[in-house]
Structures are given as C-alpha cells and as structure tokens.
Amino acid sequence: MKNLLKASLILLFVIAVSCQRKAADELSLPFEKYELENGLNVILHQDHSDPIVSVAIYYHVGSSREVPGRTGFAHLFEHMMFQQSENVPEDQYFSFIQSAGGTLNGSTNQDRTNYFETVPKNALEMVLWMESDRMGYLTNTITQQAFAIQQNVVQNEKRQNYDNRPYGHSSTVMAKALFPEGHPYSWTTIGEMKDLFNATVDDVKEFHARFYVPNNATLSIAGDFDAAEVKALVQKYFGEIPAGADVEKMSPMPVTLAETKKLYHEDNFANTAQYTMAFPTVEMYNPDSYALTILSNILAGGKKSPMYNVLVKEKMLTSGVSAYNQAQLLAGTFRISVNANPGVSLADIENAIFESFERFEAEGFTEKDLE
Description:
The chain is globular. It has two domains: 2-22 and 253-370, Cytochrome Bc1 Complex, Chain A, domain 1; 31-238, Cytochrome Bc1 Complex, Chain A, domain 1. The chain is built from twelve helices and nine strands. By secondary structure, the protein is an alpha+beta fold. The chain has helices at 2-26, 73-80, 93-99, 124-136, 144-163, 170-178, 193-198, 201-211, 227-238, 287-300, 306-314, 346-363, and strands at 32-35, 41-46, 52-59, 103-108, 113-120, 217-223, 274-281, 318-327, 332-340. The strands form two sheets. It has a six-stranded mixed sheet, covered by helices on one side. A three-stranded antiparallel sheet has the order 7-9-8, covered by helices on one side.
C-alpha cells in the first residue's frame, strides 16, 4: 500500500492542480478580510439572496493544545461557553437565539473550537454582542457550581458517545496506535475521564485567559448585511477586548510507523465486526493532502469504485465501504473502514481490500473519475 500511495500521489497531484485551477475560474466567492487592533481576524461575505446572516467564530485551540494528564479541556470549555457570561444570564444563549428565530451550536476537534449562529438579519447585532460578551467577560462567571454542572455533562457525554456506544472506543484505540505517547493527537478530544474529574475552576479560567483572546480567534460573518454597518458593530463589541499573550503556532508533527500494527478490540455493544485500516500521512495544506483526498474518492467514493466493486458487489462481504483522508494541522491519516456482514471474517475483509488496491493499480482511472 505504501507504493500504491506514493505512485498515486505523484500522478494525482498533477491532475488535482489542473482541476483546482479550472474550478477557481468557474467559482468566485468574494469576501473581505481585515484585522482589528487587538488581533481579531474578521472575514465578511455579503449574500443578499435571503434576509439571514450566519456568524461563526473560530478559536484556534483544540485538544492538541492540551498535555497528558490534563486532557479534555478544550471540549469542556466549549460547554462552559454556553453556561453564562457577565451580561448573558445562565443558560440563556440558546433561549435568546432561538427566540429570535435562529439556530446555534459549537464543536471542538483537535485543532480548533468554533461557535456558530444563523439568524434573521435583524438579530445580527444581538449575536455579535453575545459572542463578544463570552469572549471578553466570561471568567468572572465561572463558579464551582457552574463548572460542576458542565463537568458532569461532559462525563455523561463520554459515557454515551464513547464508553457505551458501538465502535465508540475505536477512535481512542486508533489514536494511541498511530501516534506516539505525548503526541498531541494521541488522545481524543473528549479526553480521559480521570482528567475531566480532576479539572478545577482555576484550570478552566487559565485556559480561557490563554486561548480565548481576540488575537487567537477568527470571526466570520456571511449573509444579508451592509459591510460598513457590520464593521462598526464588530468594532463596537469586539474592539474594546484587550489582546492576550501571543499564542505560538504549532508546527506540523507528522509520524511514521516502524512496522505494521495489528490491534484487536472487543466491543460488547457492536453487533458486527468493524475493520479499520489507517496510514499515517501528511498534514493539512501539504500538497499531498489534496491528492490523498482525491485518491480516497476514487478508491471508495461510489458504486463504480474498485473497493465497492470488490467488497460489496462481487464478494458481498459488506454493505458499504468508506475511505477518507483525515488531514489536520499537525498530521494526517488515510483511513479505510468496513463493517463486515454477519459471518464474514476480518481476514477476508483485509484480503479484499488489498485486491481492490491491485485492481486500482492495474486499471487506473479516467478523467471522468476526477469530475
């Protein structure tokens, strides 16, 4: 498979570049980008097709900023951001936005935490006020009681989505197998239960002060608005928040494996066996990552793909197969996942995967496959 990946990367990279140029000529998404004096990056995109506005704020902090023994903080703090701030009462974030006819949520991964809202255009100022309030004026509202509530919520989320869910532990097993101990990707975003239990209010306040600062965030606003008016609102609500200490960017940390690892994990909640094959690859924005994404689509992205033909249609080992390139800021992985049909052995799955690789190498692909 290493030779397959290398050969495919060289070939696909050249074709991918030409496709990207053609797409760039056909699709233009105008936007304006600027920066406040406190370091907040702002991106504006006007779209007057509907009277709505979407707001997203990205904090450039995820679980990769944690350290062993203090994992799960980034995700835990995502929950704290919905608790309350100095001018938004407890548990009112959802109420305010939904009462205005909007939607909202947040998410955390290894590299970033984001919060986003879509609202009628007349509610835009309220959203900017709320986002600025929890950026600049949240620390004083973090009490032991509020923290304990979200601590329990996250611990229950871990039990529900990881500990007591079919294939829930697969991501944990793979992370520890792919990345060496201490690597920022060697633990999952949810963190370890003991770390969540041992976290303190002071830990959370320190996390906010270090990472939830204007110079470590990007604010994106898209929709039906007047640019001059929005710039004034952004300055009004975010301009007075002081910048924090510089957050040093992390450099890519790709890994290689000295040898193939085969791991077996018993899952009492799964009804069928799952086979996952993973290759350490390159980080996001590395030119090879685009080629790997195209390769994943060609290998398994459709009913005419070699993996679907071999595993599903011909050998009937599974009802579906997926391949995807997971490129992240520090490193990447190329993964193939198959849920075996009842009675099918994992050895048969593995042999069929390699057979599909051989077919791909023999038959190649066409220009139409790249469309």
